[in-house]
Fold this protein.
Amino acid sequence: MPTMKAIPEPPRATSACSRSLLSIASLGVDEVSAILHLATELEQEDPVARARRLAHRRVALLFYEASTRTRTSFELAAKGLGADTALISSQSSSIEKGESLKDTGITLRALGAECIILRHLSSGAPYLLAKVTGLPVLNAGDGMHEHPSQALLDARTMLRALRRSDGVPGETLLQGMTVAITGDILHSRVARSNALLLPRLGARVILCGPPALLPEVALELGPGISIERDFDRALKQAQIVMMLRIQKERLTGVHIDLEEYTSRYQLNRERLRASAPEAIVMHPGPMIRGLEISSEVADGPQSVIAEQVRNGVAIRMALIHRALVEQTPHTREPAAGRPVKQPGTKKRGRA
Amino acid sequence: MSAMLIRGGHLVDPSAGIDADRDVLLKDGRVVAVEPPGKLNAAGKQADAEIIEAKGLVVAPGLVDIHVHLREPGQGYKETIATGTAAAAAGGFTSVCAMPNTVPVNDSVETTRWMQSTERNPSARVFPIAAATRGSTGEALTEYGSLKAAGAVAVSDDGKPILGEAIMHQALAAAARAGIPVIQHAEDTRMTVGCSMNAGALAFRLGLRGMPVAAEAGLVERDIRLLSELKGGRAHLHVAHLSTAAALDAVRKARRNGLHVTCEVAPHHFVLTESEVGEYNTNAKMNPPLRAESDRKAMLEGLLDGSIDCIATDHAPHATHEKEQEFERAPNGITGLESALGLALDLLHRKHKASLSRLITLLSTQPANLLNLRGRGSLISGAWADVVIFDPKAEWTFRAAATRSKSSNTPFDGWTMLGKVRMTISEGRVVYRAD
């Protein structure tokens, strides 16, 4: 089923599409390795040379939802590569007047944008934008769906915190590691992207939370995922603990007793000491201190939360580079009227 | 009016129990005679009938779709009665029942009459279904008696389920007095806030809120209970676009208990599953949503074993700019009039070996009977000259761009269909002829 489709779908993997990042699932493990490797290469490069890589190239940041970390780090990443950036947010643009996502995208393309970074409150919006503009689109978080760049920066953070090399084959990068992702899984795009990525890098993922925020169906995201309702039991198995905020803005008809939630699922000093004294602690932000995580833990020695933010810039440089610079062996002539590639532009390194 | 002699075809008319070679003589918009091959030649000559050669083709009563959205009055940019019925004719349909969610809502005698006027230039007979409550707000009943007298064949608040128990009870009782069914869009909308597809693993993966099976089955069960509490037993509940095995089980059980409950299924619910949503394909977004494979199979079984009364398309045209939006924002619905026969023939007849007679029963005879459309769904002498002539073996490719509808929101673009409509005759007038 269905068996009647006689005419095959038009091929989806156009050049622009393959340089988009809409879902973490679309990246092969070797591509993940290559992105991690490129992130390191770009981070270590001389800033002057790096800023020549995408000089005069145009990147649009289209944000329909509030963001601090993601927006700033994408912007810094683009600027670090020398690209010109334009930020469009739903509050101060024609989106307020009712302009559609399609028309906004076409307008940005007409203004010379070669890549659009999209944050949107509706799941799947990046697919629409990629389809109607034909441009590479980087998903900077869409509704409850995915946040693929976050999963990549989280993987980078884990590897560095564990002092693991990113030079080994992708499938074994996180071999033997157990990651406990705890909190509002249902509404979390970060949880989805991480749960889809980490098992493919060799890690085991434990999802933890109450049924209202973590339905059983989450198990069907893919292999390597299990559900543990008891937070302490999850912690005891984990080398990496990732905490998530309760997304009050997306709770529809779900009532959570915050006091009970806090007592069962808050990561605090006592709990961490008792159940996971060696684990590293992560949080994609924004944190609600005192709710899912205590200040002592957020600021404590096991926390790599600020590292996550720092790694975001390197990962996003790699993603923007990948979106704008065609890679061999699929090299094509640059489109007419597009700026000529800078001398610094070269074939990316392979892991 | 001129006469026509359809000659050499294979007549499939379940209303008369005929599945054999027959010639059919039409005159003045009616069926005049049905006889074995050659027996009507003299009568045809006498009536100066146009000869229509139907050798190798199936001749059947025109198809009847009891669930379409023609968008007029008020939303002519999506569809008009003229374009919607042109699509109907191209799909072999000669009778369509138009849902009342127009702008304004069809809750009046005036709108009901307006929709049936020949000024709308229809290519098929339009039977309005009037709103069950004023403005379809679920608060006060409309005037069922006068709406029926004006031509309404049923009442429904399609798209806006009647949730209140008291008002649904009143609607069933009043409709029973008027001798028409209440058609319920069975969805407990308190369970589907913000939802845009079927609940389950795929919805979770895509980050979309899912409509649970219980939202449909629960309301069907509630309605059946209300029906069983009514005295007199004349009330008729018809469940629109049934999509879940659980709701079908409830309907089966109610029928075993002697209640007058009927139901319809849309082609997309026995052809497609939720996987069609894929990468947020808005042409796979409808309400009720595409369901799981087990539900799709249950719909097929129900059609084959007779527990589902008919196929209805829920033809729901939307403009391109409306479907080219974020998945959650895009409106529900797909067009269906031109693809229904091709899909039904391929899946029910070719793959699941249902007889042509069974197929015509589901697409013509039974839907006409359900809404009491006299002289439709049948080619016995005296019936309306509503005829579809199709080649049951011809394969063809459905092209959304070539649709006669004003809209092309279909997931079946590019699909191979079985059974090409060669000609559609509505009340003795040729309304569609294949090139």
Remarks:
- The longest strand of chain A covers residues 58-63.
- Chain A touches chain B through 35 residues (CB under 8 Å).
